[in-house]
Specification:
13 helices; five-stranded antiparallel β-sheet; eight-stranded mixed β-sheet; binds S-adenosyl-L-homocysteine; 357 residues; 38% helix
């Protein structure tokens, strides 16, 4: 039998020495997404497409609008990064088929997903045969429209700690009595050069989370948009401006758990640094971030909810639609915690939801 993940991580540390937080996160999440269904009421956490079908539907309408705005290219890749159970793509495709059959005829679905278990869930959900990719670098060389909801928060972050005027990497090692514990690398980190501003601006003990994987993926997508045309939409919780602060968290059964406990059994995420994503976009146009609330309202999610309510058969179904959409746009909850960023080609109009009034 393969060793359990905690044993595997301890063996790794015994062999290579303490590992970075990013390596720990990658090992733990690689196991986590392959061990069963993490998303939904029975899982550990719930996401916007699982709360209301209106979410994926208005995103599908957004894609159709963008496609028309860039001159209706055919073929075009409709890409989702980290599609989870495939619910968002399923809802988006249904809306696209209803409002833009010409776009439906031109698009090919491409899913960027590393987990075989999640790929199976997506295959079960989607009527169309998608093409799967481990990362965006082998997407086809065509125009593309990319959706990513709660994807970037699942990518591994490095944590750098300010100490005596230098950034040191935070590591995961083994405590003398056994078990995992955080420690700080003795030598300053070569990653310090990737951080904004001088170290002098930061007090001792400040933690900066650096998501190199997110930067690389945004750079890859932006390069493709610049070369072939298209757009991307990133929705996630996080901060508009780069800042220090520890946001790495573990969630299990809809509750917080200690990060180093039971690796591979809890979802690990870190807040997304939208300023860093914007920097990684390079030459293409960046729109936002705006709040999920403003974005979804601009896209007409309330009218969509009203329409769904009109055709709902029971009072319970009508109430479920109302509470779901209210949750997505709640100004004290998901509506402001979640932010939306778009990328578009240099000579394209601002995509829906980002036009300046
Ligand atoms: N977007 C979905 C699910 C988000 S969970 C929703 O809104 O419900 C994160 C998803 O990203 C999972 O499908 C997970 O398997 C996938 N994933 C995590 N790390 C990844 C990586 N490095 N490359 C590709 N997919 C990844």
């Amino acid at each position: 039998m393969a060793p359990t993940l905690p044993r595997h991580i301890e063996a790794l540390i015994n062999k290579e020495g303490p590992i970075t937080v990013a390596r720990f996160m990658a090992e733990a999440l690689g196991h986590y997404y392959d061990r069963g269904e993490p998303i939904g009421g029975q899982g550990d956490f719930i996401t916007a497409p699982e709360i209301s079908q209106a979410f994926g539907e208005v995103l599908g309408a957004w894609c159709a609008f963008v496609w028309r705005g860039i001159g209706r290219p055919s073929p075009i890749a409709l890409v989702e990064l980290g599609p989870g159970r495939g619910t968002l793509m399923q809802d988006a495709l249904r809306a696209i088929e209803a409002v833009a059959p010409d776009f439906a005829g031109a698009l090919h679905v491409h899913l960027v997903e590393t987990s075989p278990v999640m790929r199976r869930a997506q295959a079960d959900r989607l009527g169309r045969r998608p093409v799967w990719h481990d990362d965006p670098s082998d997407l086809p060389d065509t125009p593309l429209i990319v959706l990513a909801n709660e994807f970037f928060d699942a990518l591994p972050v490095h944590q750098l700690v300010a100490r005596n005027g230098a950034w040191h990497e935070r590591l995961v090692g083994i405590r003398s009595g056994g078990g995992l514990a955080f420690e700080i690398a003795a030598e300053p980190s070569p990653l310090a050069g990737s951080l904004p501003g001088g170290i002098d601006a930061y007090p001792d003990g400040a933690i900066f989370e650096l998501n190199q994987a997110a930067g690389a993926i945004v750079g890859e997508i932006a390069g493709r948009i610049a070369e072939h045309g298209g757009a991307a939409l990133v929705i996630d919780y996080g901060h508009a401006a780069s800042a220090t602060g520890e946001t790495l968290q573990a969630v299990r059964n809809h509750a917080f758990a200690p990060v180093l406990d039971d690796p591979g059994e809890a979802d690990l995420t870190a807040h997304v640094d939208f300023e860093a994503l914007s920097r990684a976009a390079g030459e293409v146009m960046v729109h936002g971030p705006t709040s999920q609330r403003d974005f979804l309202i601009a896209l007409g999610i309330e009218a969509r909810a009203a329409k769904l309510q009109n055709s709902a058969k029971t009072k319970e179904a009508r109430e479920e639609i109302a509470t779901g959409v209210a949750r997505l746009i709640d100004p004290r909850g998901m509506g402001t915690l979640f932010k939306v960023l778009a990328l578009s080609g240099p000579d394209q109009p601002a995509p829906p939801g980002f036009e300046t009034p």
